[in-house]
Structures are given as structure tokens and as C-alpha cells.
Design goal:
Helices cover 76% and strands 0% of the residues. With 266 residues, the chain is mainly α. It has one domain. The relative contact order is 0.21. It is a multi-pass membrane protein.
Length: 266
């Protein structure tokens, strides 16, 4: 029962934080550290991310169907697919080259995660106030050059605690993308990025993967999916009205609390 409750909690954490600019990886790794939870081959942590991917695909199924069913005859659809693909490519290159270092060194450093949470929170507070006047209001029509720059910035999120959505949103805001459109482009970009990351993780760790705790994996996967759907539907409306200040302060408070706990030997 204790393992199931832990799995449920971590599934909630994944679903609640994956699409917020607060670093789901940082939340998961810190939660696992303080709860003393670790699955063989990180199977649990990898698989429940698929629940969040499925949540995004569910919410945007209609839009994605419209795009891919018309990509062969609609220049706007073709341009949108090309811009997301272009933004996705830098993460492929960096992820493949640096995968082992990221997983074996950066993911095993809770203090680094806490520091990056704090620094990312400060950046969010800064950009929410000082981002340039938006010039792009449609996430599906960003210029190729700006899509590529956003993709390069996304690579910073391979440092746990930075946040994939946070990095892409901040990059987009500084490039003159409106707040809602920045979050929506981050959603679209996350689909191939997360799917590729999970697939590559499973491939690299196939010899040590452990699916014996299927009940825990199922609980975590299901809750990550359900809460992910809720967050995606809620987030765009919230940031259109309130911006990113709440998430900046949350990161700073959580990072400071984690540093304090680590300093006390937890």
C-alpha cells in the first residue's frame, strides 16, 4: 500500500507539473529523493511521462488531426509541422550526445536541481515583467528562425530543474511571442520532444528495465494522464489573465525549501 500511495503521489506530481514552467523532472527527482523511492532502471519515472504525453495528445487531438490531414495541401499546416520539426532537432542532437552525462551526473545531484529551480523562478519573474511587446499571437505561424531559436533554448532543460516548458516559454517571450501562444507552442513542441526522450530512455535502459511493479506503474501513469489533461486545459486561460508570476515564486520557494532540507542532511 505504501508503494501504491507513493506511485499515486508521483503520478500526480508528474501530471501537475509537466506542462507548467516549474520543472516536472526537478519535482519528480526531489520527491523521489526525499521519499526514498527508486525504481530499477528508472522504469517508473520514464513510463509515467507517457501518461503526460497521452494527455496532451488527447486535448489537442482535433487540432493535430486537422493539421496532419491537410499537410499535403495546406501551406499553413505544412509550415506549422516544419516549424515544430525545426525546433525539435536541437534537442535530438544534444540529447543523444549528452544523454549518459545528463542521466548519470546531473540527475543524481539534488542540490543542483534546487539551485536551478530558484534561478529559473527568478528568470520567470524577470521575463514576465520585461518581455518585449508581443508581435506573434499564433503558435502555429511562428517564423522558422524563431522556432529554431526556441528549440535551441529548450536544450537548457536537459539540466534537471530548468524546466522544458519554462525554457521554451521564456525563449518565446523574449522573441516577441504572446504569453498564450508561447505556452501553446511549448505544448506542441513537447509532443515529439517527450516522446523521443522517453523512447530513447527505454532503448538505452532496456537491459535493466523492471516492469515487475506494474500496479505502481499503472497508478502513476493513470494519474499523470488525468491531471495532465486538467492542467493543459486550465493553463492557457490562467496565463492569459495572470502571466507567470505564480510559477516563478513557486519555483523559488520550493528550491529554497529543498536546499534547506538537503543542508540538514535529508
Amino acid at each position: 500500500m505504501g508503494d501504491l500511495l507513493t506511485a499515486a503521489f508521483l503520478g500526480l506530481v508528474e501530471g501537475l507539473t509537466e506542462f507548467l514552467p516549474v520543472s516536472s523532472t526537478g519535482h519528480l527527482l526531489l520527491s523521489s529523493h526525499f521519499l526514498g523511492f527508486e525504481s530499477a532502471g528508472k522504469t517508473f519515472e520514464v513510463v509515467i511521462q507517457l501518461g503526460a504525453v497521452l494527455a496532451l495528445l488527447t486535448v489537442y487531438f482535433g487540432k493535430l488531426w486537422q493539421v496532419f490531414s491537410t499537410v499535403h495541401r495546406d501551406p499553413a499546416s505544412a509550415r506549422f509541422v516544419a516549424s515544430v520539426t525545426l525546433a525539435f532537432l536541437p534537442a535530438v542532437v544534444v540529447g543523444v550526445l549528452a544523454h549518459d552525462f545528463i542521466k548519470s551526473v546531473l540527475f543524481e545531484t539534488p542540490r543542483l536541481i534546487a539551485v536551478m529551480l530558484i534561478l529559473g523562478g527568478v528568470v520567470l519573474l524577470f521575463v514576465d515583467r520585461l518581455a518585449p511587446e508581443p508581435r506573434h499571437h499564433d503558435a502555429t505561424a511562428l517564423p522558422f528562425r524563431k522556432a529554431l531559436v526556441i528549440g535551441v533554448v529548450q536544450c537548457l532543460a536537459m539540466i534537471p530543474g530548468v524546466s522544458r516548458s519554462g525554457a521554451t516559454i521564456v525563449g518565446a517571450l523574449f522573441l516577441g511571442v504572446e504569453k498564450r501562444a508561447a505556452a501553446e507552442f511549448s505544448f506542441f513542441l513537447s509532443m515529439p520532444t517527450m516522446a523521443a526522450a522517453v523512447g530513447y530512455d527505454l532503448l538505452k535502459n532496456r537491459d535493466v528495465l523492471d516492469f515487475s511493479a506494474l500496479s505502481e506503474i499503472g497508478v502513476g501513469f493513470g494519474l499523470a494522464f488525468l491531471t495532465g489533461v486538467i492542467v493543459v486545459k486550465w493553463l492557457l486561460g490562467y496565463i492569459s489573465r495572470h502571466g507567470y508570476v505564480l510559477f516563478g515564486w513557486w519555483r523559488i520557494i520550493l528550491g529554497a525549501a529543498a536546499l534547506g532540507a538537503l543542508s540538514l542532511g535529508y
